[in-house]
Write a structure and sequence with these properties.
Elements: E1 2-5, E2 8-12, E3 17-19, E4 22-25, E5 28-30, E6 34-36, E7 49-52, E8 56-59, H1 61-84
Antiparallel strand pairs: 1-2, 1-6, 3-4, 4-5, 7-8
Length: 88
Amino acid sequence: MILVHQERVVEIMDSYEQVANGIKVKNCVYPDCQVIDVIPPDYVIPDKYGYSATKSFYIREQWKNKKEQIESDAKDTLMLELIEGGLI
């Protein structure tokens, strides 16, 4: 099963508890989420992947943009360290 909020996979779980203010999974309560009874593939990572009935599992655009930003920041940091270290 997966827990989804606005097509974002929030949690992958075997069980959950419906409580007054949301859905409780692993001692955390998630409001405004829905449980979908599907078995996710092994590669699915919460937050990175989204899920919808029409698209199934997919990598979220926000994740792609975040990944590009992280890669860009890492390259900038590496170049700065090489310059400051006198290596280039």
